[in-house]
Design goal:
Glycerol uptake facilitator protein, 73% helix
Length: 264
């Protein structure tokens, strides 16, 4: 029963520590920052490169600020990937997604309230391009989710300790790359919560399911691909590595001595 409670995350509710609630506040704040500043950037200019940089920097800043509290998911696709990989409990994943959506809604709502309607310019809402079908949009968002979650797992791989110092930047740059490659066709959501925020503010829900199914399926596929195939192997400890090197060196010296005796 204890293992079952742990898998569901019921033990986290019983804990007297505030770590879960701090994590939820972190996820809320991270998505608020992303939608407020990145969607705010979308109100100013139509240039895709400008928007790509805004969303990449928004994710970079959000993870840098709240990553130590919640792991810096800031995206239901990432949370689903972590759930499938067994890195978070079911209960924590559900709460994360709720607070991510609430943060995104609050961030976009703040932009809408603070700006005159003449400046809204769609508030950065993601929609399918005119000649892009829902199935095509699903495929594009799938690969966007795949890219993002593969980057998250690669940057946060415990067996690649050097990666953790550049993880927020790497993840932010994957968002920028995704926008540069596809923003014209789907708006390059990559993040269901981000699209919930703008859909709520604009009351436009057309093809909304695409922006949930695509990134989440991509995130789940990325989690399985990385954990089963791409995950780095554990590195030997410094002492073990040194001992292994000394053993090989000793064996080489013995082979040399044996060779010298043969020639004598």
């Amino acid at each position: 029963m204890g293992k079952f409670e742990y898998s569901l995350g019921l033990n986290e509710l019983k804990s007297k520590e505030l770590r879960l609630w701090q994590a939820l506040i972190g996820e809320f704040l991270g998505n608020f920052i992303l939608n407020f500043f990145a969607c705010g950037a979308c109100t100013q200019i139509e240039d895709g490169t400008f928007k790509a940089l805004a969303f990449g920097l928004g994710v970079f800043m959000a993870i840098t600020i709240v990553g130590h509290l919640s792991g810096g998911h800031v995206n239901p696709a990432v949370t689903f990937g972590m759930l499938v990989a067994g890195r978070v409990s079911l209960l924590r994943a559900i709460f994360y997604i709720i607070f991510q959506c609430l943060g995104a809604i609050a961030g976009t709502a703040a932009v809408k309230i603070l700006l005159d309607p003449d400046y809204h310019n769609g508030l950065g809402h993601t929609t399918l391009a005119q000649n892009i079908t829902e199935l095509q949009g699903l495929g594009i968002e799938f690969f966007l989710g795949l890219l993002l979650v593969l980057t998250v797992f690669g940057a946060c791989d415990g067996n690649k300790p050097d990666s953790k110092y550049t993880a927020p930047l790497a993840i932010g740059m994957s968002v920028t790359l995704g926008h540069l490659g596809t923003i014209r066709y789907t708006g390059s959501s990559m993040n269901p919560a981000r699209t919930v925020g703008t859909a709520f503010a604009t009351d436009i829900w057309t093809s909304h399911w695409v922006y949930w199914a695509g990134p989440i399926l991509g995130g789940v596929a990325a989690a399985l691909l990385y954990t089963q195939i791409l995950e780095a192997k554990p590195q030997p400890k410094t002492g073990e590595a040194a001992e292994k090197y000394r053993t090989h060196a000793d064996e080489r010296e013995l082979r040399k001595l044996d060779g010298s005796r043969d020639f004598a």
